[in-house]
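Hi all, long-time lurker, first post. I run a small reading group and we've been trying to get comfortable going from sequence to structure in the token notation. Rather than ask abstract questions, I figured I'd post a concrete chain and ask someone more experienced to write out its structure so we can walk through it together at our next meeting. Sequence below, copied exactly:
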Amino acid sequence: MPVPSRERVIELISELVHAQGYDVEDVVVTNAGKHSAVRIMVDSDAGIELDAAAEISRLVSELFDSLEEIGETPYTLEVTSPGIDRPLTLERHWRRARGRKARIDLAGETVVGRIGTVNDDSVAVVIGGRGGLTVREISLADVQKAVVQVEFSKPSEAELELAGGIPEGRAVPSDAIDVGVDSTEDDEAELEDVENEEGFDK
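-- Answer (accepted) --
Happy to help. Here is the structure in token form:
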């Protein structure tokens, strides 16, 4: 019996994850023969630390083990933060990405700038040019697609100040990395506090 669909997994875990103070951003279910892989991406305004990811992984594993619809299905479970290349589709995504550079596709125009504060239905974007830094208000309803950009150097203090700074608990651009817990035997040393007798890799 394969692991349930992405939609069913989201339905099963959303309340549990929310009780830990996090949002389920996405779930990827991969079925490969008799073995399945479940990747759960969670986030909060302050991001997620390794210990919290490990605790959520433990709780979700216990939940899966208790469900008849999963039963003895072999699966690997991973809990991770969303990749920085995930699309910004909800207001909370913009709020949590404040201070990061993004590519924003509008009708007939693409804007590359640093995400600033979000005000109800719009976002302030800091844009650099020959004349210096400017701040542009963009309606979220006009955004066709927006994706955070990878940065290899830290932005200037002036640019960050105009953007409103980095939300507390989140990494400065160029320092950000994904946090993830992959419940496989290779991670046994790192996860010894959360692995149980059955383990997550079933």
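A couple of things your group might point at:
The radius of gyration is 19 Å.
The helical segments are 6-19, 50-66, 91-96, 157-163.
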